[in-house]
Design a protein that fits this description.
- By secondary structure, the chain is an alpha/beta fold.
- It has one domain: Rossmann fold (3-Layer(aba) Sandwich).
- Helices cover 36% and strands 9% of the residues.
- The strands form three sheets. Strands 4-3-7-8-9 form a five-stranded parallel sheet, with helices on both faces. It has a two-stranded antiparallel ribbon with strand order 1-2.
- A hairpin with a 4-residue loop joins strand 5 and strand 6.
- Helix 6 runs parallel beside helix 7 and helix 7 crosses helix 8.
- About 31% of the residues have low confidence.
Length: 362
């Protein structure tokens, strides 16, 4: 470029910027235009990334259960409650085998209050993915929140209809997302001796636990209650009779229902609940099984959950399902529990009875 042309170009640039910066609006307009261009023309997340985002299945918000304050002298309270809400949900993504979706696990906090001589407290939270090895000869505990991969081909059929009735341990089925709140008739601290203090609302207003179970009109109800009734001074036979009475009331008022009475689950060798021993639990379970067998009702069945969740070598609560306090269960334990229950139901006429029950809605 010739010297004359360079001089003209410099003069043009000098005059241009002189006029440009002489008007303060021009630089501002340039800045705004540049920012707008970056925002509206830049590349956002690709469609591929958007499509890979998991769809979460949130566990149900636990049902609020009302109870009055009362003092007991013969019970050991073993409640583990969940106070999570949708806004406080903590998501733990769990990849499902042979599935394309993922589930979200709601972290639950256990607030245990002793209603008798034990005043310990514990904290129970959602399980991690690292599950310890199970005792020899036992299948691995399911790590899933929403139950999948059952040995029974009818697992989903059963689970869709399952209503749980019981105490804080039974409440874990709802707290960990295995059943919806509309199928939950279980709460912390609930026992035979204090059941009249509890009400549940499954959509028809506040009702007693038995009335709520009947209101659900479910063809499959599982009862798991009793650890709060266990005491050296309590009668195992009275306990068994009381539980069976609840099952009979449900059968008398629900068409083609199957009520499964589960045995009381075991405690660990080291437990925060010293007043609850496996010896007493076993005596209560023996009385319960004998009562069910003696009545021989095709609609009231006994299921030995204690055997499912105990270490076969010691009889104590298996370490891979222990939440840490020696009594309550990790979330994964409930998948293991259901797997065994559903396989057991396949050996009975429960499927046929459910089909008869459901046919009235067709």
């Amino acid at each position: 470029m010739h010297f004359q042309e360079v001089r003209i170009l410099k003069k043009f640039i000098h005059e241009f910027f002189g006029h440009f910066f002489a008007n303060p609006l021009l630089p501002l307009l340039v800045i705004v235009g540049s920012v707008s261009a970056m925002l509206f023309t830049g590349d956002g997340p690709s469609e591929q990334l958007k499509s890979d985002a998991p769809d979460y299945v949130r566990t149900s918000v636990p049902l609020a259960v009302s109870s009055s304050s009362e003092t007991a002298t013969t019970t050991t309270d073993t409640a583990a409650s969940s106070t999570s809400t949708t806004s406080a949900t903590v998501l733990t993504v769990v990849t499902l085998e042979a599935e394309t979706t993922t589930t979200a696990l709601t972290t639950t906090a256990a607030a245990d209050e002793d209603s008798a001589s034990s005043d310990g407290s514990s904290t129970e939270s959602a399980e991690s993915d690292d599950t310890p090895d199970t005792p020899a000869g036992r299948p691995q505990v399911s790590p899933y929140t929403v139950y999948v991969g059952a040995d029974s081909p009818n697992s989903g059929y059963y689970q869709d209809r399952l209503v749980i009735f019981g105490d804080s341990i039974a409440y874990g089925f709802n707290a960990y997302g295995y059943i919806p709140r509309e199928h939950n008739v279980a709460a912390e601290s609930m026992a035979l001796w204090n059941m009249s203090r509890y009400t549940f609302d499954l959509g028809g207003g506040a009702m007693s636990p038995v009335d709520a179970a009947i209101y659900s009109d479910s063809p499959l109800i599982y009862i798991s209650i009793g650890v709060n009734d266990v005491s050296p001074n309590s009668s195992a036979d009275n306990y068994a009779t009381g539980i069976y009475s609840i099952a009979q009331q449900i059968v008398n008022n629900t068409t083609d229902v199957t009520v499964v009475i589960g045995s009381i689950t075991p405690v660990a060798a080291v437990s925060q609940y010293p007043n609850v021993s496996n010896d007493i639990i076993n005596s209560f379970n023996n009385a319960l099984e004998n009562t069910v067998n003696a009545n021989d009702s095709p609609q009231i069945l006994f299921f030995d959950a204690n055997a499912v969740l105990s270490d076969p070598n010691t009889g104590y609560l298996a370490s891979n399902v222990n939440s840490g306090d020696g009594l309550h269960l990790m979330g994964a334990a409930y998948g293991y529990w259901l797997n065994a229950l559903f396989n057991y139901l396949d050996t009975t006429d429960t499927l046929d009875r459910i089909a008869k029950h459901d046919s009235k809605y067709e």
